Amino acid sequence: MNILELDWVLSESKVVIKDRWIHLRADTCSMPDGTVVEPYYVLEYPDWVSVLAIDTEGRAILVKEYRHGAALKGLGLVGGVIDPKDASPEDAARRELEEETGYMSVDFICLGSGYANWANQNNRIHYYLAQNSKLGGKAAFDPTEHCELILADMSQLFEPGYLKQSFHLANVFLAQKHLDGAK
Q1: Which of 90, 137, 157, 182 is deepest in the core (most CB within 10 A)?
Q2: Out of 3.30.70.2210, 3.90.79.10, 3.40.50.1980, 3.40.50.1970, which CATH number does the structure's domain 48-182 have?
Q3: The whole model's pTM is what?
Q4: Which residues of 32-69 are buried (b: 16+ CB within 10 A; e: fewer)?
């Protein structure tokens, strides 16, 4: 039997905590050999978007913001949660770009999606490249984010340690073929 064909059977699922910030459930599962795994914790999150935005001068539009989980003020790409009011992941990407930076773009490219951490999270990240971005929108910062806008030379994004969030790095590398074609 191929191990990739093995599925667990879910027999029970309980919500441990659910509020604005976290939805944690504890599952009881049986493996194919009968071994019971409990509790197996799963974090349920809405899907996210990540946007590598580039202005008309070829600079990366980044945000610097405090991230309490890592206890640091970090530099990263635009992004956030896909809200129920968003008609699509691209709509969420456009909204996040405008809210966090005041920039807008009509040149969005979907780069695909992947799971944030499929071992214990259920959500995906949808990656976008927004080229030829221009100021013109209205920034509407979430008061918990305290965003600072940074315009960076694109080459900096490829320097080790410049970006520290793994899915921001994934977005940059997914965009690479489009960026190379623009040169």
Answers
A1: 157
A2: 3.90.79.10
A3: 0.89
A4: eeeeeeeebebeebebbbbbbbbbeeebbbbbebeeee
